Amino acid sequence: MPYEEFQRLMGKAGLSIKEFATLLDMNPNSITNYKKIGKVPTHIAVLVYLLSSMKDEGVDFYPIFEKIKSYSKD
């Protein structure tokens, strides 16, 4: 996915790069470094597309991430 499309979908999802990276437990710089390449990897593209689609459908995706993060606390 081109980085520009990634940014557009991030906006549709209502997320900043920092928020997206935090949800994924990533460093925001790891996300912004893809801008130099001009595209994002497929796994990142799928995630942002899903989050954008969920937002369009009125689905709150934050509880999903909270549940996933709770597994690492065990």
Q: Could you characterize what this model shows?
A:
- It is a single chain.
- With 74 residues, the protein is an all-alpha fold.
- It has one domain (3-71).
- It contains six helices and no strands.
- The chain has helices at residues 3-13, 17-23, 28-32, 34-37, 42-56, 62-71.
- Helix 1 runs parallel beside helix 5 (42-56).
- The radius of gyration is 12 Å and the shape is globular.
- The mean pLDDT is 94.
Using the alpha-carbon principal axes, give the shape: globular
Question: Mean pLDDT score, rounded?
Answer: 94
Query: What share of the residues lie within helices?
Result: over 70%
Question: Mind summarizing the main beta sheet?
Answer: none
Ends: how far apart?
35 Å
Q: How many E strands?
A: 0
Strand content: under 5%
Overall SS class: mainly alpha
Number of helices: 6
What is the string of helix and strand elements? HHHHHH
- Write down the Rg: 12 Å
- Count of discrete domains: 1
Q: Low-confidence parts, pLDDT < 50 over ≥5 residues?
A: none
InterPro entries: Cro/C1-type_HTH
Protein name: HTH cro/C1-type domain-containing protein
